Amino acid sequence: MKLLVCLVVGARPNFMKIAPIDREFTKRGIETLLVHTGQHYDQNMSDVFFEDLNMKSPDVHLNVGSGTHATQTARIMIEFEKVCKEHDFAMVVVVGDVNSTIACTLVAKKLGILVTHVEAGLRSFDREMPEEINRILTDSISDLLLTPSLDGNENLKNEGVPESRIEFVGNIMIDSLYDALERVKSTNSNPAEKFGINRYCVVTLHRPSNVDVEEKVIQLVDNLIETSRKIPVIFPMHPRTRNNLEKFGKIDLLENESSIHILEPLGYLEFVSLVGNSTLVITDSGGLQEETTSLGIPCLTLRENTERPITITEGTNRLISDLSLLQISVDEALDKQASLEPRKPKFWDGQAAQRIVDAIVNCIER
Questions:
Q1: How far apart are CA 340 and CA 225, in angstroms?
Q2: How far apart (Å, rounded) are the C-alpha atoms in residues 206 and 192?
Q3: Is residue 193 helix, strand or coil?
Q4: In 127-286, where do the E strands start and end?
Q5: Banded pLDDT at 113 (limits 50, 70, 90)
Q6: How many contiguous H segments (helices) and E segments (strands) does the chain have?
Q7: Residues tagged active-site
Q8: Whole-number Å distance between alpha carbons of 9 and 100
Q9: Reported pTM
């Protein structure tokens, strides 16, 4: 049976999830069409990843760019519908929880095309998060729901999803992480080396709840300066974060600190090398909670909640909802860091892509 599977990427985290899946399809001789919606359009935030991940260039680029949630979702739907009508897809595969995820799922389902959601079942239980809405809606209409951890299975069953649509396959992000770690061993790609430091804290912040509100930004800047007095800080800065720091007049405070090193967004290999050699991570990212758990690196997540609770119960992650408590957690993490060991929840083994492709092929055949 000749199959054509559509793989959708739209934003930075999607790339790391799709790359090993695409490689596995290629190994099996199954044709894929890689559609990049262009939801993230900054060169450093998207295109460079295809090279870093040893991933083919997109077959189709929708070039939707930025906009409000409604504008961006609508543009993706309009352009993706054209792609679906031009091809006979056996399955559309979406990943994660960005606008591209729900937009392409809606289009495919209304055209009668099967949809697989990779990284299904994750819940923060905070419907003020746009990503939570995307997750819930995508899971409610997808044909095959592939979960990274068993709590995802329970969440879906509690929402009334039939078990026949759910399969636990493990964490695809760890496939890309392990592959990247092997590749960076032979390179000299750790950006920290140019600063002459080997013990440091990596910071990534981009969520609107953290970087769009001036009062919160002031607190964050004060905390990062205080953290840099204890350990050097390396901060690959998201464009949204930089724009807001400039708007609120706070970027100079960070740039003038000798122990804070601000970088442009990094390619995936450089970023994996940076994080893999770090002492501590402060973030509001989802994927970094998983990667630090696998690597045994303390992670302080500046959010009210997480859709990845396994990184807390079985991993090295800690939620910080009150910034006034951040420095206590920084001190504790630095004190305990030497005793932490890598944690490997079930199926976080670098083989998730094989289980994902098995499940997709079985679903199509059924």
A1: 25
A2: 21
A3: helix
A4: 144-147, 166-168, 201-204, 233-236, 260-263, 280-283
A5: very high
A6: 16, 13
A7: 206
A8: 7
A9: 0.88
From CA 326, how far away is CA 222, in angstroms rounded? 11
Side chain identity at 361, as an amino acid letter?
V
Residues 6+ apart with CB under 8 A from 68: none
C-alpha angle 29-33-38 in degrees, rounded to nearest 5? 145
- For the cut 70, the answer to whether the pLDDT of residue 338 exceeds it is no
* CA separation, residue 153 to residues 120, 139, 161, 164, 229 (Å): 8, 11, 9, 11, 43
Please count the other Cβ atoms lying within 10 Å of the Cβ belonging to residue 54.
14
Nearest in space to 236 (alpha carbons), one of 190, 196, 198:
190
- Residue 128 makes CB contacts below 8 A (sequence gap 6+) with none
**What confidence category does residue 45 fall into, taking pLDDT thresholds of 50, 70 and 90?**
very low
Q: Which amino acid is at 227?
A: T
Is 37 within 8 Å of 8 (Cβ atoms)? Answer: yes
Q: Are 271 and 277 in contact (CB under 8 A)?
A: no
Euclidean distance between CA atoms 277 and 227, whole angstroms: 18
The answer to whether residue 149 scores a pLDDT higher than 90 is yes
* C-alpha to C-alpha distance for 331 and 104, rounded to whole angstroms: 44
Question: The tokens of 173 are what?
Answer: 């992000």
Q: How far is CA 343 from the centre of its chain?
A: 19
CA dihedral over 245, 246, 251, 253, signed as positive or negative: negative
> Maximum CA pair distance of the chain?
61
* Tokens representing residue 67 in the block: 């906009």
Average per-residue pLDDT for the chain? 92
Q: Radius of gyration over alpha carbons of the chain, in Å?
A: 20
CA atoms within 13 A on the CB side of 166: 23
Q: Which residues of 111-145 are buried (b: 16+ CB within 10 A; e: fewer)?
A: eebbbbbbbbbbbbeeeebebbebbeebbeebbbb
Question: Among 202, 200, 224, which residue's Cα sits nearest to residue 211?
Answer: 224
Give me the residue label for tokens 């695809």. 172
The tokens for 63 are 């070039």
Residue ranges of E strands in the chain: 4-9, 31-36, 60-61, 91-95, 115-118, 144-147, 166-168, 201-204, 233-236, 260-263, 280-283, 299-301, 317-319
